[in-house]
Amino acid sequence: MPNIPGTSLRFGPPRRYSKTFDEWLTINRCNAKARQLDIFPSITFVATKAVCVTQELPKNLKKRAKIILQKQSLALIPNGRAAGTEPFIVTGDDTILGDLSMTYKPYIYDIFFASRLPELVRFSGPVLVLAGAPGSNYGHWLHQMLPRLELANKGGWKPQEFEKVLINSTRNNFAIESLLAVGFESNQFVETFSGLHIQSANLVVPSIPEAGNPPEWISDFLRRTYGNPVSEPRGRIYTSRANAKWRRIVNEAELYPILSEFGFEIIFPEKLSFIEGVRLFEGAEAVCGMHGANLANICFCKPGARLIEIYNPQHPEIYYWATATGAKVEYSFLLGEGPIVDYPDNTQLAPGNRLDTIVCPEKLRNTFIASGL
User: Fold this and answer.
1) Going along the chain, which residue ranges are E strands?
2) Reported pTM
3) Boundary-marking domain end, from 173, 206, 239
4) For residue 329, which of 171, 185, 316, 324 is within the disulfide window of CB 3.0 to 4.6 Å?
5) What does DSSP assign to residue 94?
6) Is residue 180 domain-shared with residue 259, that is, in the same domain?
7) Using one digit for the tens of pLDDT, what is the confidence trace for 158-192?
Protein backbone atom coordinates (compact mmCIF):
# COMPACT_ATOMS: atom_id res chain seq x y z
CA MET A 1 0.00 0.00 0.00
CA PRO A 2 2.77 2.58 0.68
CA ASN A 3 3.76 2.34 -2.99
CA ILE A 4 0.35 3.40 -4.26
CA PRO A 5 0.48 7.09 -5.22
CA GLY A 6 -1.84 9.64 -3.63
CA THR A 7 -3.95 9.06 -0.51
CA SER A 8 -7.18 7.27 0.42
CA LEU A 9 -8.89 10.67 0.35
CA ARG A 10 -8.73 10.31 -3.44
CA PHE A 11 -8.79 6.55 -4.08
CA GLY A 12 -7.75 3.20 -2.63
CA PRO A 13 -7.17 2.22 1.03
CA PRO A 14 -5.11 4.13 3.62
CA ARG A 15 -1.47 3.81 2.65
CA ARG A 16 0.12 2.94 6.00
CA TYR A 17 -0.57 0.93 9.14
CA SER A 18 0.73 1.37 12.69
CA LYS A 19 0.04 -1.12 15.48
CA THR A 20 -0.33 1.61 18.09
CA PHE A 21 -0.77 5.36 18.36
CA ASP A 22 2.38 5.35 20.51
CA GLU A 23 4.34 3.85 17.62
CA TRP A 24 2.93 6.34 15.10
CA LEU A 25 3.62 9.27 17.42
CA THR A 26 7.26 8.22 17.85
CA ILE A 27 7.75 8.42 14.10
CA ASN A 28 5.77 11.66 13.71
CA ARG A 29 7.11 13.78 16.56
CA CYS A 30 7.30 16.77 14.21
CA ASN A 31 3.49 16.87 14.28
CA ALA A 32 3.18 19.14 17.32
CA LYS A 33 -0.61 19.07 17.36
CA ALA A 34 -0.80 15.29 17.72
CA ARG A 35 -0.62 14.33 21.38
CA GLN A 36 -1.15 11.42 23.73
CA LEU A 37 -2.24 12.05 27.31
CA ASP A 38 -1.63 9.14 29.68
CA ILE A 39 -4.61 8.93 32.06
CA PHE A 40 -4.35 5.63 33.96
CA PRO A 41 -1.18 3.54 34.38
CA SER A 42 -0.99 -0.19 33.71
CA ILE A 43 -2.89 -2.11 36.40
CA THR A 44 -2.39 -5.61 37.81
CA PHE A 45 -4.91 -7.23 40.12
CA VAL A 46 -5.94 -10.71 41.25
CA ALA A 47 -9.56 -11.84 41.16
CA THR A 48 -11.24 -11.99 44.55
CA LYS A 49 -11.95 -15.29 46.32
CA ALA A 50 -15.04 -17.06 45.03
CA VAL A 51 -17.65 -19.31 46.64
CA CYS A 52 -18.43 -22.49 44.73
CA VAL A 53 -20.04 -25.80 45.78
CA THR A 54 -19.08 -27.66 42.60
CA GLN A 55 -16.25 -30.17 43.07
CA GLU A 56 -15.03 -30.57 39.48
CA LEU A 57 -14.07 -27.29 37.79
CA PRO A 58 -12.63 -26.09 34.47
CA LYS A 59 -8.98 -25.07 34.72
CA ASN A 60 -9.61 -21.33 34.55
CA LEU A 61 -12.08 -21.49 37.46
CA LYS A 62 -9.85 -23.53 39.77
CA LYS A 63 -7.77 -20.59 40.92
CA ARG A 64 -8.02 -16.83 40.99
CA ALA A 65 -6.81 -15.19 37.81
CA LYS A 66 -4.04 -12.59 37.71
CA ILE A 67 -5.16 -9.80 35.43
CA ILE A 68 -2.85 -7.28 33.75
CA LEU A 69 -4.37 -4.24 32.06
CA GLN A 70 -2.53 -1.84 29.78
CA LYS A 71 -2.28 1.88 30.44
CA GLN A 72 -5.21 4.01 29.31
CA SER A 73 -4.60 7.17 27.30
CA LEU A 74 -6.25 9.88 25.25
CA ALA A 75 -5.16 10.46 21.66
CA LEU A 76 -5.59 13.86 19.99
CA ILE A 77 -5.31 13.40 16.21
CA PRO A 78 -5.31 16.49 13.95
CA ASN A 79 -7.28 15.90 10.75
CA GLY A 80 -8.03 12.38 11.99
CA ARG A 81 -10.62 10.24 10.27
CA ALA A 82 -13.03 7.45 11.26
CA ALA A 83 -14.40 5.00 8.70
CA GLY A 84 -16.79 2.06 8.81
CA THR A 85 -19.12 0.44 11.30
CA GLU A 86 -16.59 -0.38 13.99
CA PRO A 87 -14.74 2.03 13.01
CA PHE A 88 -11.15 2.32 11.70
CA ILE A 89 -9.16 5.32 12.93
CA VAL A 90 -6.94 6.96 10.31
CA THR A 91 -4.40 9.74 10.90
CA GLY A 92 -3.96 12.86 8.78
CA ASP A 93 -1.01 11.23 6.99
CA ASP A 94 -3.16 8.24 5.95
CA THR A 95 -2.10 5.73 8.63
CA ILE A 96 -4.52 3.22 10.17
CA LEU A 97 -4.02 3.00 13.96
CA GLY A 98 -4.42 -0.62 15.02
CA ASP A 99 -4.95 -0.18 18.76
CA LEU A 100 -7.60 2.52 18.33
CA SER A 101 -9.34 0.67 15.47
CA MET A 102 -10.89 -2.07 17.58
CA THR A 103 -12.16 -4.66 15.13
CA TYR A 104 -12.73 -8.37 15.68
CA LYS A 105 -11.35 -9.46 12.29
CA PRO A 106 -9.52 -6.43 10.86
CA TYR A 107 -7.86 -8.09 7.90
CA ILE A 108 -11.10 -9.14 6.20
CA TYR A 109 -12.65 -5.68 6.23
CA ASP A 110 -13.11 -3.81 2.97
CA ILE A 111 -11.00 -0.84 4.02
CA PHE A 112 -7.80 -2.79 3.28
CA PHE A 113 -8.91 -3.53 -0.27
CA ALA A 114 -11.17 -0.58 -1.05
CA SER A 115 -10.90 1.03 -4.45
CA ARG A 116 -12.50 4.08 -2.87
CA LEU A 117 -13.63 4.91 0.67
CA PRO A 118 -17.15 6.29 1.26
CA GLU A 119 -17.76 9.98 0.64
CA LEU A 120 -16.01 12.08 3.27
CA VAL A 121 -17.93 14.32 5.68
CA ARG A 122 -15.79 16.97 7.38
CA PHE A 123 -16.33 18.59 10.79
CA SER A 124 -14.45 21.70 11.85
CA GLY A 125 -15.02 21.11 15.58
CA PRO A 126 -13.68 18.35 17.86
CA VAL A 127 -15.19 14.87 17.43
CA LEU A 128 -15.12 12.30 20.26
CA VAL A 129 -14.89 8.63 19.28
CA LEU A 130 -16.69 6.25 21.66
CA ALA A 131 -17.66 3.62 19.06
CA GLY A 132 -15.85 0.30 18.69
CA ALA A 133 -16.33 -3.30 17.60
CA PRO A 134 -18.25 -4.53 20.69
CA GLY A 135 -20.12 -1.30 21.40
CA SER A 136 -23.50 -2.47 20.10
CA ASN A 137 -23.63 -4.99 22.98
CA TYR A 138 -24.87 -3.54 26.26
CA GLY A 139 -22.22 -5.13 28.48
CA HIS A 140 -19.35 -4.08 26.24
CA TRP A 141 -20.76 -0.57 25.82
CA LEU A 142 -20.97 -0.22 29.59
CA HIS A 143 -17.56 -1.69 30.42
CA GLN A 144 -15.45 -0.67 27.41
CA MET A 145 -16.97 2.13 25.33
CA LEU A 146 -18.68 4.34 27.93
CA PRO A 147 -15.61 4.43 30.27
CA ARG A 148 -13.73 6.11 27.43
CA LEU A 149 -15.79 9.16 28.38
CA GLU A 150 -13.93 9.21 31.71
CA LEU A 151 -10.61 9.30 29.83
CA ALA A 152 -11.87 12.29 27.85
CA ASN A 153 -13.10 13.93 31.07
CA LYS A 154 -9.73 13.51 32.76
CA GLY A 155 -8.09 14.86 29.62
CA GLY A 156 -9.95 18.12 30.23
CA TRP A 157 -12.86 17.73 27.79
CA LYS A 158 -16.51 18.45 28.58
CA PRO A 159 -19.52 17.06 26.62
CA GLN A 160 -20.55 20.47 25.26
CA GLU A 161 -17.08 21.05 23.74
CA PHE A 162 -17.55 18.33 21.11
CA GLU A 163 -19.24 19.12 17.82
CA LYS A 164 -20.05 15.42 17.42
CA VAL A 165 -19.65 12.16 19.34
CA LEU A 166 -19.31 8.92 17.39
CA ILE A 167 -21.24 5.96 18.86
CA ASN A 168 -22.44 2.51 17.88
CA SER A 169 -26.02 2.02 16.78
CA THR A 170 -27.66 0.06 19.62
CA ARG A 171 -30.93 -1.68 20.37
CA ASN A 172 -33.14 0.22 22.83
CA ASN A 173 -30.88 3.27 22.31
CA PHE A 174 -29.00 2.58 25.55
CA ALA A 175 -25.88 4.33 24.21
CA ILE A 176 -27.81 7.51 23.49
CA GLU A 177 -29.70 7.36 26.80
CA SER A 178 -26.49 6.97 28.80
CA LEU A 179 -24.90 9.99 27.10
CA LEU A 180 -27.95 12.25 27.28
CA ALA A 181 -27.88 11.64 31.04
CA VAL A 182 -24.44 13.27 31.35
CA GLY A 183 -24.98 16.42 29.29
CA PHE A 184 -24.69 15.49 25.61
CA GLU A 185 -27.34 16.80 23.20
CA SER A 186 -29.18 14.68 20.65
CA ASN A 187 -27.77 16.70 17.75
CA GLN A 188 -24.22 15.67 18.71
CA PHE A 189 -24.65 11.96 18.00
CA VAL A 190 -23.31 10.27 14.88
CA GLU A 191 -24.02 6.53 14.72
CA THR A 192 -21.62 4.29 12.83
CA PHE A 193 -22.62 2.43 9.66
CA SER A 194 -20.81 0.79 6.74
CA GLY A 195 -20.74 4.02 4.70
CA LEU A 196 -19.31 6.17 7.48
CA HIS A 197 -16.26 8.28 6.63
CA ILE A 198 -15.73 11.43 8.67
CA GLN A 199 -12.84 13.76 9.34
CA SER A 200 -12.32 16.21 12.20
CA ALA A 201 -9.81 18.98 12.62
CA ASN A 202 -9.32 17.47 16.09
CA LEU A 203 -10.30 13.81 16.47
CA VAL A 204 -10.35 12.84 20.17
CA VAL A 205 -9.89 9.07 20.60
CA PRO A 206 -9.65 7.49 24.07
CA SER A 207 -7.95 4.12 24.33
CA ILE A 208 -10.20 1.07 24.68
CA PRO A 209 -10.21 -0.85 27.98
CA GLU A 210 -9.76 -4.59 27.52
CA ALA A 211 -12.89 -6.73 27.38
CA GLY A 212 -13.88 -8.65 30.46
CA ASN A 213 -11.61 -7.05 33.04
CA PRO A 214 -13.12 -3.75 34.21
CA PRO A 215 -10.78 -2.37 36.90
CA GLU A 216 -11.85 -0.37 39.94
CA TRP A 217 -11.72 2.99 38.16
CA ILE A 218 -14.46 1.92 35.73
CA SER A 219 -16.93 0.99 38.48
CA ASP A 220 -16.01 4.17 40.36
CA PHE A 221 -16.70 6.26 37.25
CA LEU A 222 -20.04 4.56 36.52
CA ARG A 223 -21.29 4.81 40.11
CA ARG A 224 -20.16 8.42 40.45
CA THR A 225 -21.70 9.41 37.12
CA TYR A 226 -25.02 7.55 37.19
CA GLY A 227 -25.50 6.41 40.77
CA ASN A 228 -27.97 7.82 43.25
CA PRO A 229 -27.10 7.27 46.94
CA VAL A 230 -29.68 5.01 48.55
CA SER A 231 -30.21 3.44 51.93
CA GLU A 232 -28.66 0.08 52.77
CA PRO A 233 -29.34 -2.30 49.83
CA ARG A 234 -31.98 -4.90 50.66
CA GLY A 235 -33.30 -6.34 47.42
CA ARG A 236 -32.28 -9.56 45.70
CA ILE A 237 -32.72 -9.87 41.93
CA TYR A 238 -32.54 -12.73 39.46
CA THR A 239 -31.79 -11.58 35.90
CA SER A 240 -33.57 -13.86 33.44
CA ARG A 241 -32.33 -14.57 29.92
CA ALA A 242 -35.59 -16.30 28.94
CA ASN A 243 -36.07 -13.81 26.08
CA ALA A 244 -32.48 -14.01 24.83
CA LYS A 245 -31.39 -15.86 21.70
CA TRP A 246 -28.88 -18.01 23.55
CA ARG A 247 -27.36 -18.80 26.94
CA ARG A 248 -30.77 -19.43 28.49
CA ILE A 249 -31.58 -21.71 31.43
CA VAL A 250 -33.98 -24.18 29.87
CA ASN A 251 -35.44 -25.37 33.19
CA GLU A 252 -35.68 -21.89 34.67
CA ALA A 253 -39.23 -22.48 35.94
CA GLU A 254 -37.88 -25.23 38.21
CA LEU A 255 -35.68 -22.63 39.91
CA TYR A 256 -38.52 -20.26 40.78
CA PRO A 257 -39.41 -21.91 44.11
CA ILE A 258 -35.74 -21.69 45.22
CA LEU A 259 -35.51 -18.08 44.10
CA SER A 260 -38.72 -17.23 45.93
CA GLU A 261 -37.50 -19.02 49.07
CA PHE A 262 -34.41 -16.80 49.17
CA GLY A 263 -36.28 -13.61 48.33
CA PHE A 264 -35.19 -13.04 44.72
CA GLU A 265 -37.27 -10.90 42.37
CA ILE A 266 -37.22 -12.12 38.76
CA ILE A 267 -36.42 -9.33 36.28
CA PHE A 268 -35.98 -9.09 32.52
CA PRO A 269 -33.21 -6.49 31.97
CA GLU A 270 -34.07 -5.89 28.33
CA LYS A 271 -37.39 -4.35 29.44
CA LEU A 272 -35.68 -1.70 31.57
CA SER A 273 -34.43 1.71 30.50
CA PHE A 274 -30.78 2.45 31.16
CA ILE A 275 -31.50 4.47 34.32
CA GLU A 276 -34.10 1.94 35.57
CA GLY A 277 -31.46 -0.77 35.33
CA VAL A 278 -28.95 1.36 37.22
CA ARG A 279 -31.42 2.03 40.04
CA LEU A 280 -32.44 -1.62 40.34
CA PHE A 281 -28.89 -2.93 40.63
CA GLU A 282 -27.60 -0.23 42.96
CA GLY A 283 -30.34 -1.21 45.43
CA ALA A 284 -29.57 -4.96 45.28
CA GLU A 285 -27.73 -6.82 48.01
CA ALA A 286 -27.51 -9.93 45.79
CA VAL A 287 -27.74 -10.58 42.04
CA CYS A 288 -28.08 -14.00 40.42
CA GLY A 289 -28.17 -14.94 36.75
CA MET A 290 -26.73 -16.78 33.79
CA HIS A 291 -23.51 -15.40 32.30
CA GLY A 292 -24.22 -12.59 29.84
CA ALA A 293 -24.87 -8.87 29.42
CA ASN A 294 -27.83 -9.27 31.80
CA LEU A 295 -25.21 -9.11 34.59
CA ALA A 296 -23.35 -6.06 33.29
CA ASN A 297 -24.97 -3.67 35.76
CA ILE A 298 -23.28 -5.32 38.77
CA CYS A 299 -20.77 -2.47 38.54
CA PHE A 300 -23.57 -0.28 39.96
CA CYS A 301 -24.09 -2.54 42.99
CA LYS A 302 -22.83 -1.22 46.30
CA PRO A 303 -19.47 -2.63 47.42
CA GLY A 304 -20.15 -5.71 49.53
CA ALA A 305 -23.14 -6.89 47.48
CA ARG A 306 -22.92 -10.42 46.09
CA LEU A 307 -23.07 -11.82 42.56
CA ILE A 308 -24.01 -15.47 41.98
CA GLU A 309 -23.15 -16.28 38.36
CA ILE A 310 -24.28 -19.41 36.51
CA TYR A 311 -22.04 -20.87 33.81
CA ASN A 312 -22.60 -23.34 31.03
CA PRO A 313 -19.84 -25.90 31.86
CA GLN A 314 -18.58 -25.56 28.28
CA HIS A 315 -18.22 -21.78 28.52
CA PRO A 316 -16.39 -20.88 31.74
CA GLU A 317 -15.45 -17.22 31.15
CA ILE A 318 -14.17 -15.14 34.08
CA TYR A 319 -15.55 -11.87 32.68
CA TYR A 320 -17.89 -11.15 35.59
CA TRP A 321 -15.58 -12.61 38.20
CA ALA A 322 -13.09 -9.92 37.20
CA THR A 323 -15.88 -7.33 36.98
CA ALA A 324 -17.05 -8.19 40.50
CA THR A 325 -13.47 -7.83 41.75
CA GLY A 326 -13.13 -4.34 40.28
CA ALA A 327 -16.55 -3.38 41.68
CA LYS A 328 -15.72 -4.80 45.15
CA VAL A 329 -18.68 -7.16 44.88
CA GLU A 330 -18.48 -10.60 46.52
CA TYR A 331 -18.51 -13.43 44.00
CA SER A 332 -20.03 -16.93 43.82
CA PHE A 333 -20.58 -19.20 40.85
CA LEU A 334 -22.40 -22.38 39.89
CA LEU A 335 -21.90 -24.68 36.90
CA GLY A 336 -24.88 -25.95 34.95
CA GLU A 337 -25.26 -29.65 34.27
CA GLY A 338 -23.22 -31.41 31.59
CA PRO A 339 -19.64 -32.21 30.63
CA ILE A 340 -16.91 -29.69 31.42
CA VAL A 341 -14.85 -28.40 28.51
CA ASP A 342 -11.61 -26.52 29.14
CA TYR A 343 -11.20 -23.68 26.68
CA PRO A 344 -9.14 -20.46 26.66
CA ASP A 345 -10.93 -17.78 28.63
CA ASN A 346 -12.67 -14.73 27.16
CA THR A 347 -13.08 -15.99 23.60
CA GLN A 348 -16.06 -15.91 21.28
CA LEU A 349 -14.91 -19.25 19.86
CA ALA A 350 -15.58 -21.28 23.01
CA PRO A 351 -17.88 -24.18 22.03
CA GLY A 352 -20.42 -23.36 24.75
CA ASN A 353 -20.60 -19.61 24.09
CA ARG A 354 -24.17 -19.74 22.78
CA LEU A 355 -25.41 -22.94 24.40
CA ASP A 356 -28.37 -23.06 26.77
CA THR A 357 -27.94 -24.95 30.02
CA ILE A 358 -29.77 -26.89 32.74
CA VAL A 359 -29.35 -25.97 36.40
CA CYS A 360 -29.90 -28.32 39.32
CA PRO A 361 -32.29 -26.58 41.77
CA GLU A 362 -30.67 -28.22 44.81
CA LYS A 363 -27.21 -27.06 43.74
CA LEU A 364 -28.56 -23.52 43.40
CA ARG A 365 -29.99 -23.74 46.92
CA ASN A 366 -26.65 -25.00 48.27
CA THR A 367 -24.82 -22.15 46.50
CA PHE A 368 -27.13 -19.58 48.10
CA ILE A 369 -26.55 -21.12 51.53
CA ALA A 370 -22.76 -21.28 51.04
CA SER A 371 -22.85 -17.62 49.98
CA GLY A 372 -24.46 -16.62 53.26
CA LEU A 373 -27.86 -15.70 51.84
Assistant:
1) 16-18, 35-40, 43-46, 50-51, 66-69, 72-83, 88-90, 95-97, 121-123, 127-129, 164-167, 189-191, 197-206, 235-239, 264-267, 284-290, 306-311, 330-335
2) 0.91
3) 206
4) 324
5) S
6) no
7) 999 999 999 999 888 999 999 999 999 999 999 99
